[in-house]
């Protein structure tokens, strides 16, 4: 199924969403992420909302945990 991972059945994250997630996991603020990626803070928020919707990560702590599991697997 396109856009879904084979083993989990969850929608897969886009490369940019994975990049934003990695920066969140590294402890960067939305402003810092925006500067590093050359995008607006609003766009960082959009990517974060998409990640939260795809992975059911309602809190910042959930996003950091998700970042750790993504990096390890």
TrEMBL record:
GO terms for biological process: regulation of DNA-templated transcription. Gene3D superfamilies: Winged helix-like DNA-binding domain superfamily/Winged helix DNA-binding domain. GO terms for molecular function: DNA binding. It comes from Streptomyces eurocidicus. Keywords: DNA-binding, Transcription, Transcription regulation. Pfam families: GerE. InterPro entries: Sig_transdc_resp-reg_C-effctor, Tscrpt_reg_LuxR_C, WH-like_DNA-bd_sf. The lineage of its organism: Bacteria, Bacillati, Actinomycetota, Actinomycetes, Kitasatosporales. This is DNA-binding CsgD family transcriptional regulator. Residues 6-71 form the HTH luxR-type domain.
């Amino acid at each position: 199924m396109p856009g879904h991972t084979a083993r989990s059945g969850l929608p897969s994250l886009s490369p940019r969403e994975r990049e934003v997630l990695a920066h969140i996991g590294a402890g960067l603020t939305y402003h810092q992420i925006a500067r590093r990626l050359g995008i607006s803070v609003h766009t960082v928020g959009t990517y974060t909302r998409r990640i939260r919707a795809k992975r059911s990560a309602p809190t910042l702590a959930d996003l950091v945990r998700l970042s750790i599991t993504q990096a390890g697997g």
